[in-house]
Amino acid sequence: MKTVTIDRTGKIYLPKEVREKIEGKEYIVSVLPDGEIRLHQWTKPKDALKSFRGLIKSRKSVKEIKKDILETAMEQAD
Could you name the domain of life of the organism this protein comes from (predicted)? Predict the structure, then answer.
């Protein structure tokens, strides 16, 4: 087990052995109710709507859904 240090600005410094094992550059941090902290590797999807494909049943294309979202946002902005 390795220890990490945190400076006064809140930056966390990982030991070299840990950094060498980490893949990717972005992580999600979860703080559990008992105080345990976990890092989860995260890859930003190129198109957020496409990442939800299959979860929602719709006959509309992603392009049509984006258009609907934009139209709704413009209506609400007025």
Answer: Archaea
| pLDDT tens-digit series, residues 35-56 | 898 888 877 777 766 666 667 6
Q: Check: CB of residue 53 under 8 Å from CB of residue 40.
A: no
Burial string for 60-73 (b: 16+ CB within 10 Å, else e) reads: eeeeeeeeeeeeee
The string of pLDDT tens digits covering residues 9-24 is 999 898 999 888 887 7
Does the CA dihedral 32-14-43-21 come out positive or negative? negative
pLDDT reported for residue 10: 92
